[in-house]
Each structure stands twice: as structure tokens, then as C-alpha cells.
Amino acid sequence: MNVQEFIDAQLAAWPMARGNFEALKGVETKELDLDGMRLKVQFNPARIVSSGAKVDAASLAARPCFLCEKNRPAEQTGLDWKGYTVLINPFPIFPRHLTIPDNSHTLQKIEGRMADMISLAAELDGYTVFYNGPRCGASAPDHMHFQAGNSDFLTLPEELEDAEQKVIATDGASTLALVDSLPLKLFVIDAADAAEGARLFERLYKALPVPEGEYEPMMNILAWSTPAGVRVAVVPRKRHRPSFYGTEGDGCMLISPASVDMGGVYITPRPADFERFDAETVRRLLDELCLNTTEINAIASDVE
């Protein structure tokens, strides 16, 4: 899959996407430190489309699905990959940003698709493939899709290199481990093989709670290739958006965290939010949206 040639061809043919990728070169960023964990914040006005997306059932039903082929812009073409189509994301966060929807209009649900995700990450060397749960940042929860962006943009892969991992399950040469020493609590699968990694993920998936009214556990997932195979970071969630999400009132911020944010880069589409976004904001987000040490250890003990 020659992705760079594909991206170059799309940007040459699609003025709107080209303009957004060019604008990305001038976005403002800053770095934060949260208890020794390196994070970045990006001021990206174009992402207000995603951060402010209405994902309730009525809003989804009222709009055409922008991931279905029949509704895509005429300029948007794709690469076929095993029942999915690789597209450029016209509202990028990464210098190289892809969206990979299923070819059929089916619900955003990761169950049974982890082998696909691992295989895709193995083929897209230099990219991190990610999955946003239907209420964990997905702006199209009615259409199954992955996204991908260049790995060197995120901070989580580097942070995990030195983090303590507590192995809780194995399958062949692959492992499932708990990481509870970072401010962000998560599970890590080191998959030497897509089938082994998928089986370990299914064991974790069954142990994760499904909130009332949801059809799958809340989570963000990121996967990237390593010399030993593919590393998968699974971040369990317990809430969609923080209590201070919104546009009205002095204390509100338009921040809707998804996989990129959990990967270490927080996206702010409004200048005021970017200016006041600090390490304590991240701490509040993680406290409200993600699991604490006690909660994640309880899940780890339930993995069979």
C-alpha cells in the first residue's frame, strides 16, 4: 500500500483538503507535563466539526453518512483494503491523517475486528491506527471506521517504553498487560501475531463493563508496529465528554477527547480553550472520563 503517493495525489486533486493540510502546518502547539508524562496541546480550529459533533440518534438519522461512498465528495477517492477503504481525512490533526471506513454502513463496533486493526497497523508502518468507541470521540458512530496518523506525532508510544507493565495473560508469543503507573490507566497488548492479539483482546473485551444503554464497552484503542510485532493500547472509558464540555459559561471548554487525546495530543478548536488548557485540565479530564487504579485493577482481575 503506497500511502504517501495516494495522499499526494488526493491533495493535488482536492483543494479543500489541501487547504486544511496546509493550514495544519501553521497550527499552534504547546507541551505539558503531567506527573512526568509528556503531553501536547494543539490549537486546531478546523476540528470544531468533530469536537462539536452531535452524535445523538436523532442527529445521526437526520444527516447523510459522510463515510458512505455515495455521500463522499467527488474529489475523494480511496484505496481498497480487505473490505475497507483508505481515505485521507479532510479535517486533519496529523501531517498524514487517514480515515479507513468499512465498505458497508454498519455500526461502530470493535468486537470481531481486532485482527483487522492489528493487520492494518502492521501494514501501515510509521502510522498509529486508532479506534474511537461510539461514545468515545467517534463523530460517525453509525459507520464502522478506523483512523490513522503518523506515529511520531503522538507521545503515548514513547511513554509506554519505560512504563511498568504487569502481564495478566498470554497467548503464544503475545501478551496482555496492565499499565497503572501512568496518569492514564490502560491495557497493552503486544501482538506477535494478529490472531493471538485478537484473542487476547476478546478476553479483555469480555471483562470490560458495558454501560447501560450502550452496546459495547467504552474505550479508545491505538495500535502501531514495533520490531516485535504490533503494540495495542486499550484505554477503557466511563464517560463520553467532561462535565465542563460546552460553549456557554466561563468554565466550559469545547474539548471532546478521543484516541488522539488519549495518545497524548489534546485538540482544542477554540483559542481561549487552548490558552487555558493546562496539566490540571488533563487531570480533570482523566479523572472524569477514564478509570482510576482501583477500577482498572478490578477489570484486570476479571480477565479469564
Question: How does this model look, in words?
Answer:
It is built from eleven helices and 13 strands. The model has no long low-confidence stretch (mean pLDDT 93). 30% of the residues lie in helices and 25% in strands. With 304 residues, it is of the alpha+beta class.
Identify the notable features of this structure and list them briefly:
304 residues, single chain, alpha+beta, 10-stranded antiparallel β-sheet, 3-stranded mixed β-sheet, 11 helices
Strand order of the largest sheet: 3-4-5-7-6-11-12-10-9-8
Order of helices and strands: HHEEHHEEEHEEHEEEHEEHEHHH
Major sheet size, sense and barrel closure? 10 strands, antiparallel
Distance between the termini: 37 Å
Quantity of strands, as a count: 13
**Overall pLDDT, averaged?**
93
Number of helices: 11
The backbone outline, from C-alpha atoms, is: globular
Unreliable segments of 5+ consecutive residues:
none
Helix coverage percent of residues?
25-40%
- The SS-based structural class is alpha+beta
β-strand percent reads 25-35%
**Oligomer class:** single chain
Q: Provide the gyration radius in Å.
A: 18 Å
Short description:
The chain is α+β, with helices and mostly antiparallel strands. It has helices at 3-13, 15-24, 48-51, 57-62, 114-123, 156-161, 194-207, 259-262, 271-276, 279-289, 293-302; strands at residues 28-34, 37-43, 79-81, 84-88, 97-101, 127-132, 145-150, 166-171, 174-179, 186-191, 219-226, 229-236, 265-268.
